Amino acid sequence: MGNRRLIYLPLGGAREVGMNAYVYGYGEPDNERLILVDLGVAFPNMETTPGIELIFPDMTWLEKRAERLEAIFITHGHEDHVGGIPHYYGDLSAPIFARPFTSRIISRKLSEYGHSIENVQTVLPWPKQIEAGPFKVSFLPVSHSIPESSSLVINTPVGRIIHTGDLKIDLNPVVGDIFDNANWRRVASKGVHALVCDSTNVFSNRFGRSESELISEIESLISRSNNLFVATTFASNIARIKTLACAGKRVGRSICLLGRAMKQMIETAIDTDVLRDFPEVIRPEDAHNIPRENLMLLVTGSQGERRAASAQLARGKYMGFELKKGDVFLFSSKTIPGNERGVLRVINQLSEKGVDVIDDSSGLYHVSGHANRSDLEKLHKLVDPKIVIPMHGEHRHLQEHVKLCEQNGIQSLLAVDGTMVDISKNKPFIADHIEAGRDYLDGRVIIGALDGVVRGRIRMALNGLVAIGIVQVKKPQISFRCDVTLIGLCEFGKENSLKDILCEEIIASLMSAKHHVLNKHESIKDLVRHVVRKTVSFELGKSPEITVIVNSVC
Amino acid sequence: MGNRRLIYLPLGGAREVGMNAYVYGYGEPDNERLILVDLGVAFPNMETTPGIELIFPDMTWLEKRAERLEAIFITHGHEDHVGGIPHYYGDLSAPIFARPFTSRIISRKLSEYGHSIENVQTVLPWPKQIEAGPFKVSFLPVSHSIPESSSLVINTPVGRIIHTGDLKIDLNPVVGDIFDNANWRRVASKGVHALVCDSTNVFSNRFGRSESELISEIESLISRSNNLFVATTFASNIARIKTLACAGKRVGRSICLLGRAMKQMIETAIDTDVLRDFPEVIRPEDAHNIPRENLMLLVTGSQGERRAASAQLARGKYMGFELKKGDVFLFSSKTIPGNERGVLRVINQLSEKGVDVIDDSSGLYHVSGHANRSDLEKLHKLVDPKIVIPMHGEHRHLQEHVKLCEQNGIQSLLAVDGTMVDISKNKPFIADHIEAGRDYLDGRVIIGALDGVVRGRIRMALNGLVAIGIVQVKKPQISFRCDVTLIGLCEFGKENSLKDILCEEIIASLMSAKHHVLNKHESIKDLVRHVVRKTVSFELGKSPEITVIVNSVC
What we know:
The structure is a homodimer of 554-residue chains. Chain A has 16 helices and 26 strands. By secondary structure, the first copy, chain A, is of the alpha/beta class. In chain A, the strands form five sheets. An eight-stranded mixed beta sheet of chain A has the order 7-6-5-3-2-1-20-21. A seven-stranded mixed beta sheet of chain A has the order 8-9-10-11-12-18-19. Chain A has a five-stranded parallel beta sheet with strand order 14-15-13-16-17, with helices on both faces. The model of chain A has no long low-confidence stretch (mean pLDDT 96).
């Protein structure tokens, strides 16, 4: 093999739950042939990324090496694994491999953005192999919270890598693939060099539970209601939607889906034949004729998203439906950390309508799609790799996963985004650190996280803004006009209108300023900024953002 | 009693956990003599209240009736019960009654804001009574997470009210008062008309646990560490700080407090004699000479607050201390809903330093200060009131508490902020709804929540801002100058600088505009706004906030 090496380089997903993008390479240093596993997004929040649509891993490193990229493999159809594809389509022109359901999701996304879908290739599962330069890759079906999730079996000249993707060990999932122990044993039997492994639930000490355990409890819950029953979960959790719908049907309710994402996902799942025997659903316009106690709504918005069906039902009417006292609303979902405030807003609004809200706290109506701690240990044992590299987690998850490995005597390494790990030998080591930041989709433009755009927004949000227009009239003698606009600031100072005070102070300062100050627009601006800062601080106790425009006329 | 009535009116705290302020009144309708219980704040967040310092209940209703206000009673020293006092000091000039520790906290706050403390009156606990118009009020000691918490026993011409304040049933607290069953039985023995009751933990099905159960687990945790041990909790949780300090002492560590709030609270507790036998602490400057394995830091910032000691230690150095691989950081606290993101930021930063972070998930290192569901039921039984009115909770808590009462056959009523309840009879009813919004402290100014200030900030944060200065020069012929400033927007459009494109488009539109448009500044502004909106939408896909300043010169 000469001086060839096998490298692993997470660009996203190994410091956050989201924006997954993992590079593997094999070849001479700085000339490896590359594959990319997943290309997902993360979601913004008001605190750190106001006004942003989506967050991407910074793909610059890979874009610069695009000619060495053999293929992109997508493990499953969740946004944090596929969402980035249409946005980096032109820059990474490699073929994209995915199983049928995932492939359909990707193609729909590409089409929505006006891209061709010719690069998308639909593949059969393991033992079918795809050749990609020095790599041979198979999609090994696993159970997760979306159909056709797969681990990747990546055969390399150094040995076999298993990249788990997102998975749980479910021997009886409602929809999609089971975790097939026999297949995994077969894959592991010839020896596995490295297991690159999901870390999401490493802190969950509970025993992992099967999706199939939910239906009887949910059925019993619905049967206890004599009013409208509404349930929400992730739109992509086809198994859960089926569980909910079947439970509703069993107790004699008509099922109606609300929310574009959910309808689209169900259609895709039926079209690609991963969803069978889904109960008949009725259209919203027909649902209005059904007595409330015979109706069940399945709706989007389990994370409190403001525009989703749940939030709209909580605020008022949605598609003609209005919730009333005694109706039941089930969150068949877990609140993702950081979304608590939005979810609680929806719950309290529903509570104000007299709706009975039931959440995940009992543990009866939701199971996770990720392997819990004990299942991770099982997986380590089953695969028995030389190396485990934790991925898919915040730093705390990765560190805990490394600790778990060390406790069990397994070689492991903590590698966050941007850490290039040489895994050619039995002991992995860090070969390089590359810049691995984040990009933002803002409107339709991609900007860098450090461009200052978001920083400017956050500063305006915290401090408010004063915009001042100054016109310096030079003849017959020097005079000034001043216009002040306030946004996000109290209009009144201690006694008078803040605008009036500011104009007065600014003009007084300008009139008494020295000649050389007034000769340059920059020094006029500095003077105005100084006056505004001082005045607003005195009047309101705030330090606003300030923008000054100066014009001189004769 | 003629047509006199007894009313209960929450102004804050009965739709949120925070900004507690409850009015009781007795007398002829619209002429009742009033008392206020608590005057607290709520805390802002970036999502709904960016740049705001504090949130207050709207006190307008009470300010207008200030001459009927007999007294203010403060149940305990938490910010959500005392934080509003200095800000409404002048407008509500009634005497403020509190027990010594709370009274000291209030006086310190008033002094910080330059107010006199002459209205603050320190009182003895039950059975001592304070007369306030038609009311006779006693402070009945209870256990909670700050010393000297009290329920109020309010004797009225109609009967006895117990206003619980915040409480838990702890028969063995480490510091401060126990929940004294015998005293409560005595208070309840003559019959209680209404129990106005804490709802915070109504969803907690676990059995409430005593503060004293923690020390052995914490001691054992510290003894397993051979490195620096850091623990955080609420600065006001004197009992927990004592537990932590004693546990550290027992295993031979020197104790050092970091964070102004914590030092202040401990001093206040020692001065007012509620804290005794607190271990000797060392100064930060002396702590540097102690070997790490013999040192324990107690620090502020359990909620991930950016400026607190925890967050600063997580980011880098704080007062010369720097955490290292193998150090242990204990969150002896619960994350308040909504603070998850900030707390996780701190945890991940600590994790990146290699620090072992231990949180509340095991249940071994924290107990709540509020009565759990089963304890609430105990309390209902013990007091056996005619009416229970839930308070101190979001809508979902209040509703659940009402349900709990109904299940147990207890008369109850859901009254959110602004609901005036007539509790003169055995069946409460809603007598009126008053406007009960929120006020914000912004800088040093109090503004209304609906004033539009915060809305303007949020819009700038989401959309970015374009500020345009136009100068219309009328002679010798009409021409225009245009200056553009962008804040929080990408500087580049599809091909060129966005500023350049905007200036070009604006001037072109103005030059081709009809005469009557150019005659008025307002119509020029409208035209400019239209052009900016269209151009930025085309170039970036954003709808920015726009401010235009127009000047004409001859």
